[in-house]
């Protein structure tokens, strides 16, 4: 049908052709949330305060501390990322727990792959923060090496000072002997 020449009718015709913006979904709308492993914002809503509680536990367990005994400033971002990944894994695991192991086609749920990737991300985060036995051993060795290096440097400086003092005394004795011979 051709467009009308009447401006009112034309406006009505064009209004029918243009999509109207959809109203925003209600705040509690979780219909599109499948398992929440990939949707970080939705997971935080579903997880509630999981991330905050997990962050508090990780911050308390981290082996390195700053001068006031808290979590070092440069580790906070890594702990936040790790807490978020743990909260997402908890959401995915809870979703998977309500379903059979295989879907109706006999395949594992896609959430299993997401959970696997989250576990790998979490393992890397734990290693990076020194929260695994192997990471603590490596961190301990590095701390021992650093302390040993500092002790060696101090001992070396003290030995040089003793040698310099001895050389100065010998030079003074040589100067006295040279003055006595003259």
Main pleated-sheet profile: none
The count of domains is 2
Helix content: 55-70%
Residue share in β-strands = under 5%
Number of strands: 0
Give the low-confidence spans. Answer: none
The number of helical elements comes to: 6
Shape: elongated
SSE ordering: HHHHHH
Which structural class fits the helix and strand makeup?
A: mainly alpha
- Rg, Å, rounded: 34 Å
What's the average pLDDT? 76
How many angstroms does the end-to-end distance come to? 128 Å
Task: Walk me through this protein's architecture.
This protein has 182 residues and is an all-alpha fold. It has two domains: 33-131, no CATH class; 133-182. 66% of the residues lie in helices and 0% in strands. It is built from six helices and no strands. The longest helix has 49 residues, at 133-181.
Question: What's the structural blueprint in terms of helices and strands?
Answer:
Elements: H1 7-17, H2 40-47, H3 50-61, H4 76-97, H5 110-128, H6 133-181
Concise account of the structure shown:
This protein has 182 residues and is mainly α.
Please name the defining characteristics of this protein:
182 residues; mainly alpha; 6 helices; elongated
